[in-house]
Each structure stands twice: as C-alpha cells, then as structure tokens.
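Exam revision sheet. Question 4 asks you to relate a sequence to its structure. Input first:
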Amino acid sequence: MRTFIARTAATMAIAGSLGVAGIASPASASKESVNARSVPHYQYGIDTFVNDNCESDATWSNWAIEQVNSFKSLGANSIGITFPFYSDSRYSNNVYTKLVCGTYYSSPSPARVAVIVQRAHAAGLSVVLRPVMDETNLKKQNLWRGLIEPSNTATWFKNYYKTIAPYLAMAKNYNVEHFAISTELDSMSRKSQWRSLIAQAAAIYDGDLTFDFSWNPHDDVQWKGTTAAMDTYRYVKAPITATPARLLALWNRALATDDKVPFISKAVIEEIGIPAQDGAYLTPYAWNLLPISKHKFNQVIQDNWFTMACRFMKSHHMHGIYYWGPAFYKGALSSKPDTADPQDIQPLPQASSIKSCFAG
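Answer key, structure tokens:
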C-alpha cells in the first residue's frame, strides 16, 4: 500500500504578531550581508515523498540513483526529502514514526534516508530533510495537519523532539545542509516551546534549521535560530487562459494585501505543486480530488504555474524553490504525461518552466 500527502482546502489565519517572545524580527533573523545578496545563490530543488514498505536494500538504492540523476538532469542543485511521522487525532499528544509492512505506516528509518542523502551528495546535490505529519489518521476527522490541537502542548513537544532527534543525528553525521524543524504545523507555530526545541535540535545538528509555514494570511512566523521556508499553495481566481504574467500579478496582489510576509526576501519556497488540470488555479492543493472527467488534464496549467512561481521567487529575492516531484518509489521523473497522478511533475514543465528556472 502506498500513501501520499493529501492536500486539503483547510487554511487557518493564526492570530498574533512578530512580537511573540523568541520569534525573530525580519532584521534580526538574517545574518546575511547586503554584499552576499548581490550575488544570489538559489536553492533549485525538487521534493520527493519517501515512504518505506520494506523494499530490499538494492531496490531502495536503485530508486535513489534514478531519482537523484533525474532531478539533476533538470538542473537541480538540491533535493527535498519528505518523510512521514504520525499522530492519532486532532487532540492527540502522540507523535511517532512507525513502519508496518503493507500498511500506511511507512516511516523510513534514518539509515534508509541516509542512503538517499549519500546518493544526492555524490551527485553534487544539497539536501533538505522534511519530516511531515501524515494525514491518514487525521483525515478520519477531515483534518489538515495545520489544525491540530494537542491536549497537552508540553507533552506533544517532548514527543515530537523524541521522534525527530534520530533524524537530526543522522543529518549531522552525513552533513545534511538543511533540516525543516517544522513543516505546515501552522496551529502550533506560535507555541513558546519552539524556543527550547530549536535549542535542543541545534545541540545535535549544526546545519540550517528551517521553519516551514503555509502561505496563508498572518502565517508570518520565523523563530530565532531558524531560516524561513514556505509551502506555497496560494490559490487564485484565474481562467485556464491566464498567462504566467497574469498569475504573477495575482500572487503579488495577495502578498501586498491580506497575505503579507514581512521576511519574504529571506525565505525559500520549500514546496510548490499543482495538478496539471483545468481549474487547478483555484485549488492547487486539491491533489487527486479533481475528477479528470470535469477537470481536463492540461500540462500547460502546471507549466504556467511553475513559470509564475519561479518569477515570483526571483523577483522577491527569495532564496530558492522546490517543485513537488514524484514519490520516491517511482524513481525517475516520468517522460510521458501521467493522467493517473496529475500532481506529479509532467514532461512539459520538466522541459520548459523548471529547466528555464534552474538555468537562470
């Protein structure tokens, strides 16, 4: 059984401001000099979702080689390795990794993840590790990971640290460049416990800790000791004929009004994706939820969206972009249109928008 990250329409406007204790202001959050920004260096990456179903070591290694080589062929200089951990419900304090062959519990061990890291580094790619809360249990409550409300926050953070600590240690041992300490945990983003958890993580791992938030109104948190990252599934009301320029204008309008992000120029787009289907501009997060019979397969939709996102990233002097790619078990990027998984990167954007973005 394979599992995928399911995107939902749930969003949340979190109250508060950058005045929360321990959260860095835009000025204090960056140690980068003006001169360093004059010669921008982007993270050009593709994300993969890695789940383990007890495959052989040889199969695992072959998948890693195929995928890394495929990503690099587009000009990528980085890979985002996203892997699942679990919680039982909206209010649960349990946080854990779990592997049971043939079920949706498929967390890869740190050793398994390290195989991909080694292959990536051997090919000259940097790595960002992204633990993400799997939504299979949460979907029973029609819930998105960004809306969890554990009954005991202190216990939740204790369990969360225990869960990610082995991966932090592996990241240290294998010189992983970036580690997402939080991914789309929007409802938890302003909890004061992040201060101590970030300190604990930094005691194990001395690379770049990223704090990944969803681009929604008021989701503008950046904790001291981390760098900013965004998962960008911001929708727009646009016809299928909209050009990348029109789409970019709509994103810029959103950024300038309700969805202001004060440190946008210091952030990385750590995940962006959209189904290659008509109508997806309004619901870029609706993976596997747009019937092909009503939403025609259309690679141009994905190509235009990716072109727009790259222009957005560069025009705001952001630090990089990661396009959501195929699940790890699929290996290389598909060379043929994939109507079964329209959210995967299709051949047209591979040849057009992504290659152009990474070449610039």
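Marking note for examiners. The beta strands are 43-49, 78-85, 126-133, 178-183, 208-214, 227-231, 268-272, 320-324.
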